[in-house]
Amino acid sequence: MKCPLCGRQKARRACPALGQQICAVCCGTKRLTEIQCPADCPYLASAREHPPAATLRRQHRDVGLLVNVMRDLNTSQSELFLQVLTFLTRHEPGELPGVPNAAAALGWERIVDDDVADAASALAATFETASRGVIYEHRPSSRPAARLVTELKPVLAEARKGAGSSFERDAAVVLRRLEEGVREMHAQDRTDPRAFLALLGRMITQAPADDGPPPPATPSRLILP
């Protein structure tokens, strides 16, 4: 039987996340990015215990980039940075209230790294202006980035609750660092338009949901190998 994901290789691995057989190549390359592997997946556990050399090199590169981007951030800035990264890992094309499948009907696709950099730059400029006492909303240059700005605003508004007067400055620093991280990632990989977002998919994990009340701990965490 052919793998249902690639349609080329033989399906020989039972994937607990998809409930069907897939090939080893798709298991290895789509793990935790396109496939939301459960924590008890034996292939995931084996890969974490005995990662191949190429995976180790990628992990070291991923960690190095994020450590560099988060350099010198204080506690509040680091927490806000992680909140924004977590939002990006969960992001899907926006919907219109009362219009099923509006994103598909309007041709809205998943954002790419350039949209993230454009949105981060515009929001950072808005917060920088606000920190100087001037209210002016800077706008990104692309429509996907503009949608991302709209969807990020509630995340930032929630983070602002209880924050001090330095929030505008902290948000500007975090968003500039996000833009910097995207640019740096693209300097390393110019072939993948979602290279930075893929990095986040590898580095950010989300706790499994249950039917009970949400735990007090943060629902996502940064994975450092």
- Termini separation (Å)? 35 Å
Rounded radius of gyration (Å):
19 Å
Question: Helical content, roughly?
Answer: 40-55%
Strand-residue proportion = 5-15%
The number of distinct β-strands equals 4
Q: Can you tell me the residue ranges where pLDDT is under 50 for at least 5 consecutive residues?
A: 95-106, 206-220
Q: Which whole number gives the mean pLDDT?
A: 83
Could you give a short account of the major beta sheet? 2 strands, antiparallel
Structural class by sheet pairing and helices? mainly alpha
In total, the number of domains comes to 2
What is the H-and-E element order?
EEHHHHHHHHHEE
Q: Looking at the structure, what is the overall shape?
A: elongated
Strand order of the largest sheet: 1-2
Task: List the total number of helices.
Answer: 9
Describe this protein's structure.
With 225 residues, this protein is mainly α. It has two domains: 1-50, no CATH class; 51-222, no CATH class. The chain contains nine helices and four strands. It has a two-stranded antiparallel ribbon. A two-stranded antiparallel ribbon has the order 3-4. β1 (13-15) and β2 (20-22) form a beta hairpin. α3 packs antiparallel against α8 and α6 (113-131) crosses α7 (143-160). Mean pLDDT is 83; it is low at 95-106 and 206-220.
